[in-house]
Task: structure prediction
Amino acid sequence: MKKSLLSITLALLAASGAQAQVGPNKPVGFVGGFGLTGGGEKLITVEYTNGDNQDVRSGGLVHFYGGVEFAVAPLVTMQATVGYHVDNVSARNGDAKFERFPFEFLAHYEISPQFRLGGGLRYVTSSKLSGDGAAEFPTIEFKSHAGAVIEGEYLFSPHFGAKLRFVSEKYKPEFGGSSVSGDHVGLYATFHF
Result:
């Protein structure tokens, strides 16, 4: 009788603990999200005909990503994602943009059922600054490089959260020139499937 009661109690505790876990409730799941980022250096300033101007920066502005997330321990998950990160200035007669494709490999540790900390490697490819129309100039391509990510995520539910992150990275032009800091912060909405 005591063994049965102990077994039932342990089973209930294990079940309640499993429900409290953040992220996917299965060993492997999908993750995606988008965020607004700011920082980095000014790459180009676009001037409008009315006298206003706007900058394209190496740390801005919108980042979309998706990938897989898998559990490696009861409180630890790993993520592998690919994304599109762009800062863009548009007008009727042309636009300028800085775009890149980051691959991120992150680990997260669950501090509490709703909060986790993480970090890891960000590898950026196909980075380029380009313009067309009235903002046309020779395209500047940047070398692929690795950077670092640190982030905290608050989960409102096992499937939706918000995260604040810091990224440290540098962009070096493909054909010589000074490196450009791409360090930035971002606020993201995250989805776990």
Q: What stands out?
A: The chain has one domain: 27-192.
